[in-house]
Amino acid sequence: MAPTPVNRRLVAVLAADAVSYSKLMSENEEGTLRVLAAHRSVIDGIIEFHSGRIFKTAGDSVLAEFASSVDAVRCALEIQDALKTRNDSLPEEQRLLFRIGVNLGDVVVKDEDLLGDGVNIAARLESIAEPGCVCISSAVYDQVIGKLSLGFVDLGEKELKNISRPVHVFGLAPGKGMNARPASTPRSSSLGRWLGITAAIGALLAGGGILLPKIKPQPPVPSAGNEQASGVQHHEEREKLLWDTVRSSNNPAELEAYLKQYPAGMFSDVARARIESLRKAALSPVKAVEVAPAKRPATAEPVKPAPVVAPVVASRPVEQHLAKPAPEASRIPVQPKAAQNFDGSWNVLVNCDKWKETEGILRTFPTKISQNIVKIERGKSDRAGYIKLDGKIQDNGTLTLTGHTLSVHPQFLGRPVTGTFTGKFSGDYYEGKGAFGSRPCTLTLVRK
């Protein structure tokens, strides 16, 4: 009987694991589980955003695969940046740091699981990374160098547990990622080495009386325009991912952590309005319901009990047996609560997820609210990307917006897609959750 063929493939593997998880669990089990759940929602979302697939989890650890080493490294850095923001908003004793390792290797595919050295090396790289940092193997480094502007630290060859050969390791800390200039390349290419040797030979021959032109190795000159455009795009992607992790938070510290990193970012106005709204809500006192004491009668004479008289049902109409209404003067009028007035100028922010081959959508534009009626319109009614929504704000501050947009997807370009958003105002801030068709979106209103 022929042996069953082994299914293999080349993938980039990301391994992430929490630092001192057991210690934190022993000190505050419920609190640690809450923080872990929040961190995992961030990690899982960023992995999905970068087209990764989680193939194994165990408590506080995550293993994910990527078809691209570049995507895997970007994902690792953005996870660490996002978790740093969340940890900065927590008390020090509740902070949960992660280590991450990334390796490129040939792995064995067994159902939905991946096995082999490619996975094991990623896990060992994670174990030697500093808390909050990333370690990558030389195989990954060779794939991303020249494609990402990163400041790597050459950690040299490392003996990893249960790995038969040394692995050349490079380290990277968040905050020195997409916007950092690349460090001097520790591993020169074969062309660079050849140029260096040629230059040395030329110098020796020149010293012996034979003059040859000295060849100086020249570093590759990246296209400034392409590098700058790529850096801006990645910067915006990282900001959007970070904003997605804090935008629904009721903790002003998390929003302030976003502003600290992006003080003039795409969502900075929204974050400031949200913080102000949360602080106003925290300062608003809860009014107790006052019950007016019953007034005593003007006379101090005791009230005599009325004599008991047998009812004569046959001789009285039925209405006489019913309780008479209280005198008009003794009734306490109930004043209806005045509806909040939202009239004025507002900024609109529409933030939609990626869908199929189409990138995420981010639109910001002004609108006006009149008599608590919201009418949102952007673009030309015959062009792709046009948005039209309307709705009426209810007395309790809830708002449901309905309407449509014209699709920007190449396959459905210009076709109308219905949209619905529901949310509630909190002071000068509104966030409605909904979708255009099957694409999840968030619509935010911030008073100018």
Plain-language structure description:
- It is built from 9 helices and 16 strands.
- The chain has helices at 21-27, 29-49, 69-88, 117-128, 138-144, 190-207, 224-246, 252-261, 268-283, and strands at residues 8-18, 53-58, 61-66, 98-110, 113-115, 134-137, 153-158, 167-172, 344-352, 361-370, 373-378, 387-392, 398-406, 416-425, 429-436, 439-447.
- By secondary structure, the chain is of the alpha+beta class.
- A hairpin with a 5-residue loop joins strand 12 (387-392) and strand 13.
- The longest helix has 23 residues, at 224-246.
- Strands 1, 2, 3, 4, 5, 6, 7 and 8 form an 8-stranded mixed β-sheet that branches.
- Among the domains are: 8-172, Nucleotide cyclase, GGDEF domain (Alpha-Beta Plaits); 341-448, Lipocalin (Beta Barrel).
- It starts with 7 loop residues before the first strand and ends with a strand.
- The protein is globular.
- Helix 1 (21-27) packs antiparallel against helix 2, helix 3 (69-88) crosses helix 7 and helix 8 (252-261) runs antiparallel to helix 9.
What order do the helices and strands come in, and which of them pair?
Blueprint: E1 8-18, H1 21-27, H2 29-49, E2 53-58, E3 61-66, H3 69-88, E4 98-110, E5 113-115, H4 117-128, E6 134-137, H5 138-144, E7 153-158, E8 167-172, H6 190-207, H7 224-246, H8 252-261, H9 268-283, E9 344-352, E10 361-370, E11 373-378, E12 387-392, E13 398-406, E14 416-425, E15 429-436, E16 439-447
